[in-house]
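Researcher: Here's a chain I'd like modeled. Treat it as a single chain, no partners, no ligands.
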Amino acid sequence: MTALISSRALNRATLARQMLLERSDMPVLDAIEHLVGLQAQTTHSWYHGLWTRLNDFDPHALSKLLADREVVRMVLMRSTIHLVTARDSLALRPLLQIVSERSTASVYGRNIPDLDKDELIAEGRRLLDEKPMTFTELGQRMAERWPGRDEHSLAYSVRAWVPLVQIPPRGLWGGSGQAVHSTVETWLGSPVDTEPDIERLVLRYLSAFGPASVKDAQVWSGLTRLAEVFDRLRPKLVTFTDENGRELFDLPDAPRPDESTPAPVRYLYDFDNLLLSHDDRSRVLVDYKQQRPRNGMLPRLLLVDGYTTGWWTVETTKDKAVLVVHPYRNLLKKELNALTKEGQPLLDFVAPGCTHDIRFER
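Model: Modeled as a single isolated chain. C-alpha cells:
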C-alpha cells in the first residue's frame, strides 16, 4: 500500500530540497546545479535567491563566475531564462529544445511560416558567430536576407532553434547592459550534448523539488509525455499518495523531514522556482488568487511557517532603503520579530551603504 504524505510533510520536504529550512554551506556552483538552475530573466533579483539559500553568499563571486563563463543565462525550463552552470547549459538545452520551439512557434512562427527552418538556423548562427547581437540587431540583419519579413519574428525564431546565451555585462552584480546574445557553443567553446539523458533530468528534478507527480515535472520543465519516463524509473523510486489522492514520486534517500520541523521565515525573490515548479502549488502557496502577478510581474513573496504569508518590496531613496512587508494576515509578535531579524541582513545585501528601516503594512 502506498504511504500517505501529509501536506505539511510535503511542504517541509520541498523546503529541505530547496535549502530553505536552513542555509547551506554548499559551494555556489554546486548549489546552482542542485537547484537545476534559477529562473533569471530579471537582471539581478536571482542573486537574492542564492543569498536566501546559502551561508556567506558573495554576489561578486557569482558575478565573476558569469564573467568567466562558468555559469550562463539562457532559455531552458518553461522557455524562460535560467541561470545554470556551463556544463548544465550543454546538457539541458537539447532536452528542452522542443519547449522553446513550441513556445516561439505559437507566437512568432505564424509570421514566417514559409521560410526554411534550416536556412534560418544557418543564417542566425552565421551572424551570431560574427559577433554577439541584441535581438533588435539580429532581426535587422536577418531581414537583409529576407526583406519585408517581421524582424522580431526572425530574431525570436533563431532564439527558439539555436541555443543562445545572454552575455555579460548584463547580469553582473551591480552592472547593467543590453540583452546581447551569442550561441552557447561559441561562448563556451563546446558543443551541446548529443545524447541528452531525460531520465537523469527527472531524477534531478525530484532531488530539488520532490516528492512530485508526473504533472508537476511537466509544469516545471514545460515538457510533455513524461509519464513513460517515470514508469521506466519507477523501480528506482518510492511513491506516496498526497491528501488529494495524487501519486507522488521521490528518490529513496532524499530528505523528508517530519512535518513538525520548524521552518524559518524567508524572503523569496520574484520568479523563485519554489513557486513555479509544481502543478499543485498548495504545498507552499496559500490563497493563490491573492498572489496573482501585479502588472504582469510576480510579487516577491515571503514564507512564514513554510507557507506564503505576504509580499515585500524595498523602497529606496538616495540615502535610505525601507523594507516594506505586506502580510496577508495579522502576524503574531514572534513572527514579526522573525521577519524583522531576517529583514535586516536582507537590507544589508540588497541596499548596502545607506540607512535602513523596516515597515509592516496591511
